[in-house]
Specification:
Single alpha-helices involved in coiled-coils or other helix-helix interfaces, Rossmann fold, alpha/beta, about 400 residues, five-stranded parallel beta sheet, 3 domains, single chain, five-stranded antiparallel beta sheet, Argininosuccinate synthetase, chain A, domain 2
Length: about 400
Amino acid sequence: MSERVVLAYSGGLDTSVGIGWLKDATGKEVVALAVDVGQGGEDMEDIRQRALACGAVDAVVVDAKEEFANDYLMPALKANASYQKQYPLVSGLSRPLIAKYLAVTAHELGADSVAHGCTGKGNDQVRFEAAIAALAPELTSIAPVRDLALTRDKAIVYAQEHNLPIEQSKKNPYSIDKNVWGRTLETGFLEDPWNPPIEDLYEYTQNPADVQPADEIIITFERGVPVAIDGKAQSPLEIVQNLNALAGKHGIGRIDIIEDRLVGIKSREIYETPAATTLIVAHEALENLTLERDLNRYKRKVEADWANLVYDGLWFSALKRSLDVFIDDTQRHVSGDIRLTLQGGRAVVTGQRSTESLYDFDLATYDTGDTFDQSLSKGFIELWSLPSRISARRDAQQKHVAGK
């Protein structure tokens, strides 16, 4: 058997042409790997057959939707993961899972290398290759578009010359990636940050300006994981899918961001994340109800570090694993119900309850009969502000001496 390379295969132009391009450039047999992470669209069997028609010696399809939701999206939700406080890491979360199956398939089929369709400008090249380096350092990573000069024009010509069964169009102006957590768009007229996004861009969300009658829902969490909507038990995948439809109807989760890429450039990105946005809003509200003050404050700092690590392709890093342990521990009491109103592009929390709640009505109320002893506050403030008082006294003395 000749040497083999396993290619992460999407079914699109670049990866379809990449099958023959890789074989021609490296002499290796190409195995196509298509991983279903809830991106929808074409039937995965059609994609598998296309890979074979384009010259792959084998084509493997993996249904990873449940695994993606349970093992990647739920840890991200526990971390309230949002890069630059806005982006819920749609692509950043799927890449380590795809890389895992690249490594698994390479080992099973005797391949000595893996490949992906990323350019040299983006983050995904780093995510794939850093993950492979952590999981299977003996494998070589190849990027046809980046390493073998496979440009779009060359890909179209190659597809025409070889009669490949794929759409050969120069007119698609956008680069699109999607999975069950959201949808991303870039390039084309979006590369000018002054150009507003047009309605035709969107697929997961309706226009929030077209205000629909409000929907009210209750999301139930157990230890930081959503387990039911309106009392109906559902799996994490089902909850994400159902919230994509419901929150998407109200235009929730549209994001337009100038993003700091890992390779050092800024990029204008459009995202649609209806379920992710809604769940993070609800989860943060429940944490505010159930987490002790200093733990809640500190966790917000850790969340930013966690999101940066995942964005930067370090899902399998030692630091990320350690942060996972901390975050999981914070979720021991994050159980309860959050009520939200969905309308006009917003998910608004309107009710919070939990048997693990740290909210004490008798302490919080301003009515007669409250149990908070206000007489203690004066002494507390005196002690709390004592360092500031001493420091201010010193500064005043120094100014007085300097003024003489």
